[in-house]
Amino acid sequence: MFRYFPEVDIEVIHKQRDYYIIAFAFIAVALCFLIDSVANIELQYALGIAGWASLIFILQGECKYVRAQVFVAVTFATIGENFASIYMSGYTYRLENLPWFVPPGHGLVYLTAIVIGRTDLFLKYARTIAAFVVLVGGTWAILAFTAVIGREDEVGTLLFCIYLLFLFKGRSPMVYLGAFFITTWVELIGTSLGTWNWAAIDPATTLTQGNPPSGVAAWYCLVDAVAMGFAVPVMRRTKKVLKFLRIKKDTVGNLLPPLKKGD
User: Fold this and answer.
1) SS3 label, residue 92
2) 3 state DSSP class of 198
């Protein structure tokens, strides 16, 4: 099961910047949700602007492929938010809207999952950490399913099974490993502060679900699958558009009369 993960104690390049990103993400999530717990709509707008500014700034240090992945992830997750929350009411935000900080927040969470998975700590001890995730996540799913902790959570158990499938058979096991930690943090902080609440009965499946569901990291596995599938096409299309715009610019420049001295 663990053969898809790196060998024990492999040599990797240590990047201090990755740990700064991780620390920022965990702190920013908690601070944002804490502020939102008492925020009006105007303050939510400000949190959204701050979220976009932070995400864009961090992405400056990433390669084009990661930027494309994050762009696709934000687009797909935002569409999913509007469907699952606004339309289906599977979960509801405090002001019954889609807060402005949510789209860039998805980008930051997805990027953090990537960053966590490439750190030297996770690469060196990937198999041990994967075993820890299976043990903790599995225990959470079983206890939630039997309503020993919180309310009955059938959806969470189903999601955790899907998560395990991604973790041991998916294309990005290290990203999925990182996703467990950041999404668990996001869900526990967000639901405890009332930023959003999950419906007791999932409207799509009519199954019971916890607040939050135990296997919620599975959703980011799906986001990653979509991001990986569409990142390269997005890069190619962007390159074609930029090339077309440069050609149009050169064409317009050639059609304009040359400037005379003194103009």
Assistant:
1) strand
2) strand
204 neighbors 83 (Cβ within 8 angstroms): no
Q: Which amino acid is at 151?
A: R
Which pLDDT tens digit goes with each residue over 142-173?
999 999 988 999 999 999 999 999 999 888 89
Q: Which domain holds residue 46?
A: 16-255
Pairing of strands 91-93, 196-198: antiparallel
Residue 69 lies in a domain: yes
Q: How far apart are CA 4 and CA 168, in angstroms?
A: 7
Do 144 and 215 touch, CB atoms closer than 8 A? Answer: no
CA distance 35 to 105: 14
Q: Evaluate whether residue 261 is within a structural domain.
A: no
Task: Compute the residue count for the chain.
Answer: 263
Rounded to two decimals, the pTM is 0.88
The per-residue pLDDT for range 223-255, each reduced to its tens digit, is 888 888 888 888 888 888 877 777 665 564 555
Q: What is the rounded distance in angstroms from the CA atom of residue 213 to the CA atom of residue 145?
A: 10
Report the number of distinct structural domains present in the chain.
1
Stretch (H or E) spanning 48: helix 41-59
Q: Which of 205, 209, 206, 207 is nearest to 196 (CA)?
A: 209
Please, which pLDDT band fits residue 48 given cuts at 50, 70 and 90? very high
Question: CA 251, CA 258: separation in Å to the nearest integer?
Answer: 13
